[in-house]
Prior knowledge:
The structure is a homotrimer. Chain A has helices at 20-26, 57-70, 87-97; strands spanning 2-9, 15-18, 33-42, 47-53, 100-106, 109-110, 116-122, 130-140. By secondary structure, chain A is α+β, with helices and mostly antiparallel strands. In chain A, strand 5 (100-106) and strand 6 (109-110) form a beta hairpin.
Amino acid sequence: MWFQKTLILPPKNRGFHLITTDIEAALPQLKQLEVGLLHLLLQHTSASISINENADPTVRQDFESFFNRTVKENEPWYRHDYEGPDDMPAHIKSSLLGTSLTLPVSQGRLALGTWQGIYLGEHRDQGGQRRIMATVYGERSGTD
Amino acid sequence: MWFQKTLILPPKNRGFHLITTDIEAALPQLKQLEVGLLHLLLQHTSASISINENADPTVRQDFESFFNRTVKENEPWYRHDYEGPDDMPAHIKSSLLGTSLTLPVSQGRLALGTWQGIYLGEHRDQGGQRRIMATVYGERSGTD
Amino acid sequence: MWFQKTLILPPKNRGFHLITTDIEAALPQLKQLEVGLLHLLLQHTSASISINENADPTVRQDFESFFNRTVKENEPWYRHDYEGPDDMPAHIKSSLLGTSLTLPVSQGRLALGTWQGIYLGEHRDQGGQRRIMATVYGERSGTD
C-alpha cells in the first residue's frame, strides 16, 4: 500500500512547534497499516522538522534560544542577506535540523517513543504556510 | 517483505559508541533481502544515532569533545534545567545528530561505505537502556 | 518495484555543490514511478548530503563559511589529527548535515519544494570521487 498527500500547515510564529497530532489527524490512512513507514518532506529551505521532547514547552523555548545563539543574524560575512536578517540563519538551521524525516508505523499508529513528538522549526519571522509531502507505505492489516 | 522489531541496547557511558555489529546481529532478517532498506528509530530524545568513521576511537572521542563545547551545560538562559545539567544539552544534541536513520541493504548486507559505522550518541550521564524500533523492508532473494 | 545503483560523483572542490540534476540524470527509473521514494546514502564520513536553497550560489558560500567557523580546524583538543587539519572537522560536518537522505517521488519526478535542491557538502580539501548508493522503490505507473 502506498499513499501520498500534501499537508498544508497554517502560518506559525518563529520558534519550535509540536505538530504530531496535526500529522496524525491529516493521515487516517496510517490506521490501515499493520507495519509500515511514514515519510515526511518539508518542502522549504527556511524551516525544519525534527523529533524531540513532547511534554515541556521550555524544551522548545531553549531550542529556539540555542539555535539563535549558534546561528546568529547579521553576521558581517553573510553574502546572502537581501531577504532580511532572519533568512540566511533560517537556511542553515533548516539543514542542521533537517527537512526529511522517516517514522515507523506499527499496528496503525506512529511508533514514536513515549516522550517523542514531531517538531516544526519555523525559522523565519514571517514564514507563512508550510507544505509537507507525506508518503505512507507498508502492509495493510488483515482485519481492515 | 516487511519485518519490525524493537531492539534494546544495554546502558552505555556518555559518549559515542559503534553499534553496527549489534544492529546486524539482532536482525538476521537482513540476510534474506536481495535489495531493501533498514530504518532505525531511536525512541528517545536525549541520545542520537548517526553514521561516522568506524575505525579510530579518537574520532568518537573528538565527537564527544566537539558536542560538549558546542552545546554547553549550565547555560544561564536554559529554562528546562530541572532534570540536571546534562539534560537540555542532550535534547539539543539529539536533534542535531538525529534519531531516525535509513540504510540500504544489498544482497543480504548493509551497504555502508568501507569506513562507515552506526554511532549511538549517549548524551546523558546515566542514560540507561535505549530502545530502537527497527523496520526492515525490501525484496527477498530468490535463492533464500 | 525496487532498483538499486551506485552513483559515482567526480571530485569536487571543498564547499557545497548542487547535485539534483546529476542524481535525476543517473536514475531514469524515477520516471517509471507513480508514487515512491528515493533513498540516497553517501558512503563516506567526510562529506554530506542535505537539502537547501537551489538558486542563489551565495547561500552555498555562506554554508561553507558557517560550517568552517562552527567546526574549526586545528583545535588543540582534537586527538584525531594525523590525516590533516581538514579531516576531523570533515567528520563532524558529515554527521551534523547527514549522509542519508530520503526524498518523495510523485508521477515520475522528485517531489521537492520549488526552492529545494540536493547539496553535496565536500568537507575535505582533496576529497576525490564520492559514491552514493541510490535505492528507488515504489509503485509503477499503469501507463509505463
